[in-house]
Amino acid sequence: MNSNVSVASRYTTLAADLSHEVEIKRSRFITYLYRVSSETDARGHIAALRKQHFDARHHCSAFVLGADRMTQRSSDDGEPAGTAGIPMLEALIKRETTHGTDLSDVLAVCVRYFGGIKLGAGGLVRAYSDSVSQALDAATLVTRQRMLRLAVPAEHSQAARYENDLRAAGYQLGATDWQAEGALLQVAIADEPGAEDEFQRQLATLSSGALHGQLQGHDWVDVPQGGGR
């Protein structure tokens, strides 16, 4: 695994949960994709599906968590070892996105209703891998971006102009905090090397050196694929 992945400032995840079903040699494979934030969250979904599909033969699963993708789990749930969980996990971690192979915070559960025809080890690997891949094909993905939050003090009379200038420069602004002594512009920028310095330079240029952003912290936010400065 890439040694730099632990400092990732963005990754790709699901915009919404979904399910997708395929039939292979009379067996039904129903794949559920969930956006999850923890192992507890993931295992809760798996347990719920076991109750919902109590009459299914198998409830195989795989999930990957975190910006660094260090938490990876899979389960064959009674299928021959290595024929279900691992292929499902590989379908998740090898998925190509806008930013490469960075899909995370995703759980896949494949519920199988056996149709009476054995698929063999190779057939099972293809079935479970393809089921997850087809579900991902139908999914809407979103970039999860770590953003720095800055507050920019400005005079009341100049705040609206600076808001427009910053938006025109491609920055994301939140609701301005109007205070008695002045306005505080709320700005979010990508938490990446050099991004804050670049923002301060832009701000100084826009205001002829009058403004300076005050770092408030950071948040993880969803941004459109390819968006977020």
Descriptive overview:
The protein has 229 residues and is of the alpha+beta class. The chain is 30% helix and 35% strand. Strands 1, 7, 8, 9, 10 and 11 form a six-stranded antiparallel β-sheet that branches. Strands 2-3-6-4-5 form a five-stranded antiparallel β-sheet, with helices on both faces. α2 (85-93) runs parallel beside α3. The longest helix has 19 residues, at 120-138. It starts with 9 loop residues before the first strand and ends in a 6-residue tail after the last strand.
| Number of DSSP helical runs | 5
Question: What's the gyration radius in Å?
Answer: 23 Å
Structural class: alpha+beta
Principal-axis shape: elongated
User: Into which percentage range does the β-strand content fall?
Assistant: 25-35%
What is the element string, with H for helices and E for strands? EEEHEEHEHEHEEEHE
Largest sheet: 6 strands, antiparallel
The low-confidence parts are 1-6
How confident is the prediction overall: mean pLDDT? 92
Number of strands: 11
Q: Roughly what percent helix?
A: 25-40%
| Alpha carbon gap, first and last residue | 27 Å
Write the layout of secondary structure elements.
Blueprint: E1 10-14, E2 18-24, E3 27-35, H1 39-52, E4 58-65, E5 71-75, H2 85-93, E6 106-113, H3 120-138, E7 141-154, H4 156-168, E8 172-173, E9 177-179, E10 182-190, H5 195-207, E11 214-223
Antiparallel strand pairs: 1-7, 2-3, 3-6, 4-5, 4-6, 7-10, 7-11, 8-10, 9-10
Helix pairs in contact: 2-3
